[in-house]
Amino acid sequence: xxxxxxxxxxxxxxxxxxxxxxxxxxxxxxxxxxxxxxxxxxxxxxxxxxxxxxxxxxxxxxxxxxxxxxxxxxxxxxxxxxxxxxxxxxxxxxxxxxxxxxxxxxxxxxxxxxxxxxxxxxxxxxxxxxxxxxxxxxxxxxxxxxxxxxxxxxxxxxxxxxxxxxxxxxxxxxxxxxxxxxxxxxxxxxxxxxxxxxxxxxxxxxxxxxxxxxxxxxxxxxxxxxxxxxxxxx
Length: 234
Hints:
Elements: E1 9-10, H1 12-23, H2 29-34, E2 39-43, H3 50-53, E3 60-63, H4 67-74, E4 79-82, E5 84-86, E6 92-94, E7 100-103, E8 108-110, H5 111-125, H6 130-135, H7 142-149, H8 157-162, H9 190-201, H10 205-214, H11 222-232
Antiparallel strand pairs: 1-8, 2-3, 2-8, 4-7, 5-6
């Protein structure tokens, strides 16, 4: 099967076949999930869950993002179990036990997510000068740090960044010299920041890996992130 163009919502088989064409390597459901691609299932309107559907009385595509649910899929489950999803208004919702069960063939993957992943993998496949990347004086700004990492920690990350310190001592994750024009102008090395969040605040590495896959502004740092993890044996 040759897929010239992905449908808006691709089946697992279509997603894997298309990515295999783009990367030259085989793909599976487990690999899709490990690379941070969110699976969806279509939920038809259920009168027992009116708050879940809101005005979407015909149903809507529900994301499967809870780690327990995706880990079960990646491990080779026979069906789909959804215990936490987002409602039609994209607000996270925990379902009444035991949750929703659906058949594996009902899984769908968004075209935009697959294209983003393919682009990221192609960039990572290009020769990367790791030393130059580590010496780079560029970084991400406070707004981007909060978008990528604030939900992963219990501390007030915005307040910590606003203090202008490096968070992890001295300059820490802050790019040296970037705050000379003001604390709100400071830039942050996302790789150093992520490693610090894992070490000091016990943020799980899978959550951090997913962040580097999920945000376009972190894609230029993905190669350095993966290289650093490899050096650390993680």
